[in-house]
Amino acid sequence: MPGVDSTTWTRSYANKNNKLNTGSNTGSYIVANEGAKPKKPDPDPPYVPPTDKNLSSYSGGSSGSSSGGSSNYYSDLFEEFKRLSAQSRDEAIQAIIKNLDAVKGTYQGQIQDVLDQYQNLVNQNEVKKERARRIIRENQANRGQLESGLGRQELLNMNLGYDNITSNLNSAKTKAVNDIYNLITQAEAEAETNKSNIHNNYANALLQYRLANM
């Protein structure tokens, strides 16, 4: 019986393409855990095509002495090879999906952390702004300038300074969140590429097996 040429299998994606590259870190954090990057979960075992050993215990059909019997035997053997290949393919694809879900979950957690951290900074800035406003108003009252043009300008300048800080914080928050969303998009695209590669490898394996057993 012709053997399965295991060298015909393309396995370059194994343990490499089956792991999602989560990309660079956000680089936009200005608070604790700057540049935090999620740890990629270890994927399940990659797609490994069946070999002679997998098929050695297969007892479907008898080789027989006639050409018809031999044809049926190799046809049955090919169907078993295809079944094992499809099983391995499906397991590899499920591993990619599981890995992607884990990566996306980590990124979603980072997004929430960013939103919480920046909101805390905005709240702190608002507290400082109100404290500064009270101090300025007290000083103006002591100087008799509560309603003067100079007093109003002083208060306006103070408000503008703190409002600019809030605006800068919101801009930084938006950039940090968008950076993480871009990483999610990149991870999704890489997962689709890896799944496509597995489907292609599966189809090529069936072709190579048939050619090797003609």
The SSE string, one letter per element, is HHH
Oligomeric state of the chains present here? single chain
User: Approximately how much beta-strand content do the residues carry?
Assistant: under 5%
Number of strands: 0
- Low-confidence blocks of residues: 1-39, 56-66
Fraction in helix: 55-70%
Mean pLDDT: 75
Structural class: mainly alpha
- Give the overall shape, derived from the CA principal axes: rod-shaped
Query: Major sheet, described briefly?
Result: none
Count helical runs: 3
Using only CA atoms, what is the Rg?
Answer: 32 Å
- Could you give the distance between the termini? 11 Å
What are the defining features of this structure?
rod-shaped; 214 residues; mainly alpha; disordered N terminus; 0% strand
Structure notes:
The N and C termini lie close together (about 10 Å). It contains 3 helices and no strands. By secondary structure, the protein is mainly alpha-helical. The chain is about 70% helix and about 0% strand. Helix 2 (about 65-145) runs antiparallel to helix 3.
Task: Describe the structure in brief.
The chain is an all-alpha fold and 214 residues long. The protein is built from three helices and no strands.
Topology:
Layout: H1 52-55, H2 67-143, H3 149-212
Helix pairs in contact: 2-3
